[in-house]
Amino acid sequence: MTLSVKDRVYAAAEQISAERRPTVSTVRAAASVSNADSTRYLKEWSEEKHAAGGQVAATPAALLEQAARLAGTCWAEASTMAAERHAAVEAAWAQERKDKDVEIAELVSDLDRVTAEKDAAGVEFTDRMAELESRLTDMGSQLADMGDQLEAARAAERTAVQDASEAATRLATAEARSSTLQEVHNALLQRVTPETKPSR
User: Which of 40, 55, 133, 166 is deepest in the core (most CB within 10 A)?
Assistant: First the structure.
């Protein structure tokens, strides 16, 4: 069935209006009609659309009443849900704040405990360091005394060695002198003692 020029213009206008406002040129190209037909029937189509849009029936009173009751019911339910939601959020916030307060109190307690332990450890460390320093000082003094004693022992050893060497030298000298004196004594005795002649 072949559509009339008017039907083609109306169909093209409906199709184009779904995406954008139809114009004479777009309708003419889509409907394959002349410029005059496109202008004429597009104007009629636009007038019919405006007329149809202006014919709005009055809303019945019963429908308005039902709509009002429905709106009131929806508002009441929405208000109740909002109140319940607010109460739930407030309760959750209060519980969360309570939990946070407990957590903060625990953290403060832990901090105080750690601080006290740190202070106690610091005092203990200071005392221990003082004790070690005192022991180190005592050991240093003992080492110094031992060093002095060792040096004195070495000096005494050197003195004893020197004395022994000197004593050995004196002893050797004395022995040499004694030997010499003995020889002199023997020689003198030989000179003093007369020779005995044999008897006839």
Answer: 40
Give the pair of three-digit tokens for residue 26: 């777009």
Q: Is residue 25 part of a domain?
A: yes
Q: How many domains does the chain have?
A: 2
35-60 residue pLDDT tens: 999 999 999 999 998 887 755 444 56
Closest CA to 146 of 161, 154, 159, 132: 154
What domain range is 133 assigned to? 104-166
Which residue do the tokens 């849900």 mark? 81
Nearest to 42 by CA among 60, 21, 24, 56: 24
Q: Would you say residue 118 lies in a domain?
A: yes
CB-based burial label for 46 (10 Å; 0-12, 13-18, 19+): middle
pLDDT in tens, 66-118: 866 787 787 788 779 888 888 888 888 889 888 888 888 888 888 899 899 88
Dihedrals φ, ψ of 51, to 5°? -65, -40
Q: Tell me, yes or no, whether 28 lies in a domain.
A: yes
Rg (CA), the chain: 69
